[in-house]
Amino acid sequence: xxxxxxxxxxxxxxxxxxxxxxxxxxxxxxxxxxxxxxxxxxxxxxxxxxxxxxxxxxxxxxxxxxxxxxxxxxxxxxxxxxxxxxxxxxxxxxxxxxxxxxxxxxxxxxxxxxxxxxxxxxxxxxxxxxxxxxxxxxxxxxxxxxxxxxxxxxxxxxxxxxxxxxxxxxxxxxxxxxxxxxxxxxxxxxxxxxx
Length: 195
Ligand code: SAM
Description:
Helix content is 25%, strand content 29%. By secondary structure, the chain is α/β, with parallel strands linked by helices. It has one domain (3-182): Vaccinia Virus protein VP39 (Rossmann fold).
C-alpha cells in the first residue's frame, strides 16, 4: 500500500463535506458525529487506522459494508481500483453518492440493501471493510473474500466490540487477529442483529 498517498489524501479530505449543517463546525474534531437515522460517522483517526489495516492496493477490488456518510468510501476509492459499497438506509446511500460524485469518483458502485450477506454478484473481493458491528463473523463475507484477501470488521455485542483483521491465505485458510476494542453501531440484517 502507498502509505504516503493515504496520509496525504486523508489530511486533504474535508470531513465537513460529509456531515450536515450545524455539525460542520465540529468536523475537525477527532470524534464520531451523528449522520441521521441513529447512525454515525466514525472518528477520523479510527477511519485512517482501519484503512491502514485493510492495506488496499491500487489494483484492489474492495467491498465496503455500511456506506454511511461516504467518508470511509472516499479513502477506499482513492487507494484502490474499485469500491463496491452497500448501505441499508436509502437516504444515507443517496446522500453519500451525491457527495462522492461531487468529488469526481468514478470507481464506486452503490447498492442499497442488506450488506451482511455481501454483494455476491460481484464477488470475490480483495478487501472487505465492515463499518458496523456484527455479533459473529458473517460466513457470506468470508466466502466472498478472495484468497490472499484481508477483511476488517468489528465483532461483538452492542456498545463494545473487538476490531478483527481477517486474512485468507492463498490456500484458503482463515486467520483472525484482534486489534483493539471499538464501539460501532450494529450491523443489521440476515448475518447481523435483528432489524
Ligand atoms: N463508514 C461510514 C462513514 O465513514 O460515514 C460510517 C458507517 S456507520 C458507523 C455504519 C453504517 O452501516 C450505517 O450507515 C448503517 O446504516 C450501516 N449498516 C448497518 N447494517 C447494515 C447492513 N446490514 N447493510 C448495509 N449497511 C448497514
